[in-house]
C-alpha cells in the first residue's frame, strides 16, 4: 500500500506530461494487482478429486451449479458435510457441487455413519484439501476434520502386510483386499509421507498442526506400508516384475478385483507405485532394486506395431457411461510403444476379459460397453521411462560419494 500511495503522489506531480503520465498510469494499473497476488494465497488444487468428479458426472450429468476453485471455504464446508463419524468419506462425489437445502439435510443425517473409501484417490485427498484450507483460512473446523481423516486412514491399515483396502465396510468381494488399483495403497502412503516426520517434514507446511503422537503413528504406518509394497512385488522365476491390482490379505497372493479384472500384473497402478517409491528422498537399496526391476519389466512387455484407434459409432447409453464412439486395435508398424493394462502373472501375455469374468483372446471380443468404459490399453509408462526414471537415476548418482 505504501508503494501505491507513492505512485499516486508521483502521478499528481507529473500530471499533464504525456510520457510520464502514461508511465504512472501503467504503474497504477499493475501495482495493485501485484500486491493482491502477493497477499492472496492460491486456492488448493481440486485435481485430486478428478476421478470422483468424473464418476459423479458420468451418472448425474454435468449440468449443475459448482463453486469456483477460489471459493475454498465453501468447498471445505462441503467436505465437512460429507465426512462420516469415524473420519471417512463416501466415494465419487464432487466437492465443488453447490448443495441445496434438501441435500444438506440428507448429508447431516448421514454423518453418524462409519466407513469410507480409498477408491479413486478418495479420503486422503479430502484430508489434504482440508489441511490446505485450514492453512489459508485459519478455520479450526478444517483442522479437526483433517485430524479425524488421518485417524480413519491409520485405523484402516490392514494387519499383517500393511496395505490399505478399497473400502470399509466391504460391500463387494474385492473391497477388503490389499488394493493397489486406483493408487489406493501407494496414494495413501504418498499422502502420509507428506504428513509425518519420516522424511524430516515434522511441523512443516499445511500439516504443521499434526501433534507428536499422531505423527509417530503415521511414521509407523509408512514403514509398514513401504515394507508391504516391497513384499508384494510379483516375481516370475525369482525375478521381480511389478504389482497386481489386489492381493489377498492372508495369503498375499494376487486375486481378482471386479469380475473383469482377473488376477494379473497391472501396468497403470505399477507406474504409480514406481513413482511413489521414486519419491522417497533417501531410498534404501531394496527400494532402488524394486524400481529398477519394475522399469525393466515395463520395457520388456511393451507392445510394438499396434495402435489404439477411436472411431465414431452409434450413440449408446450404458449404466455407468454413454458412448458415441468405439475403440479398436489396428496394425501400424510406425506406432509408438503401447501397453496392455493387464499381463499374465506367469508368462506376461495380455489379459483381457468380459464383464462375466471370462478371459478372451482379443480386444474385439470384449463387448463395446467395456471397450469404451475401461482403458485396456494405454501409454501409462511412457513419461516414466523416457523422462522420470532417467532423472531419478541421475539424482541417485549425484548422491554417491
Automatic annotation (TrEMBL):
Q: What is its EC number?
A: 4.2.2.2
Q: Which domain of life is it from?
A: Bacteria
Matching entries from Pfam families are given as: Pec_lyase
Q: Which EC class does it fall in? A: lyase
Keywords attached to this entry: Lyase, Signal
Under InterPro entries, the record lists: Pectate_lyase (IPR012669)
| Signal peptide extent | 1-37
Q: Indicate whether Lyase appears among the record's keywords.
A: yes
Q: Does the keyword Signal apply?
A: yes
Q: What is this protein called?
A: Pectate lyase
- Organism of origin is Lysobacter cavernae
